[in-house]
Amino acid sequence: MTIADESRLDQAVGRATRAECLLADDLLIEAFETLEDTYTTAWRSTTIDDVSAREKLFLAINIVGKVRDHLTAAVTNGKLAQAELKELAQTAERKKRFGIL
Fold it and tell me: What is the pTM of this model?
């Protein structure tokens, strides 16, 4: 593995840490909930012939979920990167210990 690959893994770990903080942040949690509730309420109160508004509100609701999913994916990717970095460190240590390096 190259230094660039390790740097990419380190970046993924850093992004995961930031994403975890965001997902745990009370203000962001409240923002997601408020947006979803507001959009859902507006969507339900549209008239039967207001197809365009319903479609836009449906998209808005889904976008909020996609933002949350993106942050969750960053956390997952960071955990995988952390495990890969740990494995690389253990492999390097074993090679060093047995004089393979």
Answer: 0.81
Instruction: Check if the beta carbon of residue 9 is closer than 8 Å to that of residue 80.
Output: no
Q: Which range of residues forms the domain containing residue 47? A: 3-97
Structural domains counted in the chain: 1
Which residues make Cβ contacts (< 8 Å) with residue 81, sequence separation at least 6? 8, 9, 10, 12, 13, 16
End-to-end CA distance of the chain: 14
Look at residue 53 in the predicted model and tell me its pLDDT: 97
pLDDT single digits (tens) 48-65 = 999 999 999 999 999 999
